[in-house]
User: Fold this.
Amino acid sequence: MFAKVTEFLTSVRDELKKVTWPSRKDTYASTLVVITLVIAVGVFLWAVDSVLSASIRYLLR
Assistant:
């Protein structure tokens, strides 16, 4: 059992050495894109929800 765990962890370490990690600049740029899109989608959904809520309220009067 211990040998299998050691073999697995060695394999994980070897695979992590093969990974090409993004630079700090790339990570920062990707984070800004994600935050911007989350805010944009949030505002869009808020607007759609507001319009639909107002429409339903108008129809129920």
The two ends are 70 Å apart (CA to CA). The helical segments are 2-18, 24-60. The chain has two helices and no strands. Residues 12 and 18 are 10 Å apart (CA to CA).
